[in-house]
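Running this now, will post back.
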Amino acid sequence: MIIIGVGCGPGMLTEQAIRAIGRAKKIYGSDRAIEIARDFISPECVVRTIDDFKSLHQLPEDIVVLSTGDPMLAGLGYLSGTVIPGISSLQVAAARLHIPLARIAVVVAHGKGHEKGMSETLEEVQQGKIVYLLADPKFDFAELYRRLLALNCRPLRIAVCENLGYPDERIEKGEIASPPVPKADLYSLVVGNF
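Update: finished.
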């Protein structure tokens, strides 16, 4: 099995990923991942939308699985096989905000683990790290902001990064006293002194 990161949006595929997608005979992926890779998929390739992510480990070894972003950042990198990285939302956010990756602690609160994500974010901020928080639409960012404000860490900035890599990409920055609010379902937060 080959697990390919298609990047966080259009134009974020690596050359290695494009070549592997072009050679694939069978591809599985989410609708979003397939759409990002569509121009590079051979007309002879059988393409299937993933309906059950829990059964992916049962797929045959001769397939390609597309993962949005990078498979190793809250993606499908846990599957057995070769992983071809993609350009992640973390990389794009760091580049847009001019933050060295070495200064960033990654916290995943996407799909589950919202409370754990909040706790990890608070711990990392108290340690002086800049946090990249990969969230989802159900994540209670208002509660996180309330807890961050109570820490009384100054200066503390927030950036809401939405639809990174897409034409409607939006990054809004602010202070914890009046933080920006996510407006899209596809977003991440950057929290810290940056």
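Helices lie at 15-23, 31-37, 89-97, 114-126, 141-151. More later if anyone needs it.
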